[in-house]
């Protein structure tokens, strides 16, 4: 509803009476991009003086070091949970549209089953996407999602 995607960063079921079950929720953009395993570079490019240089490959990432963090702890034998805000600030602008976000773009099990039934009935991928979006107005799947699910 607020165009923020929250993911489970860590969870712990607590074990046999040792600790209470807990879950740590974070923004999908938490952390920083980790470059390749070694310090060796993977790409060779020429610079303005026509000297060949080794430099790191250009990459893209959605991680920007966002510190937003929530901690949930089970406070009883039942399903009572205490949710604590560890850090409630995002360091990035909020998305206007969730079209390209991988977590939101995923299909539910019911949608996957419906997609496979329609695919076996030789329905075009474009029509499958239209049907999914008609059934669920919050669905932000793309054609790529349909093609990947088929494979």
Give a nutshell description of this structure.
This protein has 151 residues and is α+β, with helices and mostly antiparallel strands. The chain contains 4 helices and 6 strands, in the order E-E-E-E-E-E-H-H-H-H.
What does this structure look like?
By secondary structure, the protein is of the alpha+beta class. It has 2 domains: 1-35 and 59-96, no CATH class; 98-151. The chain has 4 helices and 6 strands; from the N terminus they run E-E-E-E-E-E-H-H-H-H. It has helices at residues 102-105, 109-120, 125-135, 143-150; strands spanning 6-12, 22-27, 43-46, 52-55, 69-74, 81-87. The chain has a 4-stranded antiparallel sheet with strand order 1-2-5-6, with no helix packed on it. A hairpin with a 6-residue loop joins strand 5 and strand 6 (81-87). The longest helix is centred in the C-terminal third of the chain and has 12 residues, at 109-120. The protein is extended and about 55 Å long. Residues 38-47 have low confidence and may be disordered.
Question: Main traits of this protein?
Answer:
two-stranded antiparallel sheet; 2 domains; alpha+beta; 151 residues; four-stranded antiparallel β-sheet
**How many H/I helices?**
4
Shape: extended
* Strands, count: 6
Q: What string, H for helix and E for strand, traces the elements in order?
A: EEEEEEHHHH
Report low-confidence residues grouped into runs of 5 or more.
38-47
> pLDDT average, as an integer?
76
Proportion of strand residues: 15-25%
Judged by helices, strands and strand pairing, the structural class is alpha+beta
* Oligomer class: single chain
* Helical content class: 10-25%
Strand ordering within the main sheet: 1-2-5-6
Distance between the ends:
31 Å
Number of domains: 2
Radius of gyration: 22 Å
Largest sheet: 4 strands, antiparallel
